[in-house]
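Review form for a predicted model. The reviewer records the input and the model, then writes brief findings.
Reviewer: anonymous (R2)
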Amino acid sequence: MFWLVANVLLTANGGHLAMTAAKTGKWLMTIGIGIFVFAPPVVDILTPTHVFNADWVPHARFHTMWAILSTSAIGILALWLLWRGPALHKFGTHLAGVIGSCVLGAFMLAAATMSLYGGALSDANGVPLLAIGVDANLVTFGVALALILAGWRLAARGGD
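Model under review:
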C-alpha cells in the first residue's frame, strides 16, 4: 500500500512532484524515526511502566534505560544524516533508512520471537492495550516502521 502511494506521488503530473515527494519522504522518515527517539523515553522513563516499575529487578531496569538511551541516540544520528544537506542527500537518506529499519525491525523480530524466550509486549502493570484490544507498542512501532519505509522510498527516488 505504501509503495503504491509512493509511486503515485513520484509519477503524478509527469514526474513534476519528484522534489515534493522527496521532501515528503524525508518528513515521513522524520516522523517515523522521531517516534522511536521520543516515545520510549517519555513512556518508559516518565511513567511507572518500565524503568520505575516496582516489580522489575534493578538489572532489568538498567538494561531498559540503556536500550532507551541507545535507541534514542541512534535515532538522533539517523535524523542528522537524513537532514545533513545536499552533499550527503542520497547517502544520508539511505543510511537513515537503514538505521531506522534496523531499530524497528529488531523490535518486530523480538515481538515475533517472544514465545522462544518467554517475552511479552506488556506486563499487567505496564502499558495498557489500546481500546481495540491491540498492544500499543506494536501499533506505534508498526506505524513508525511503515512511515520510515514509505518515506525512504519517496526520499530516495525523488530529487531534492
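Findings: The mean pLDDT is 86.
Further findings: The first helix runs from residue 2 to 11.
Recommendation: see findings above.
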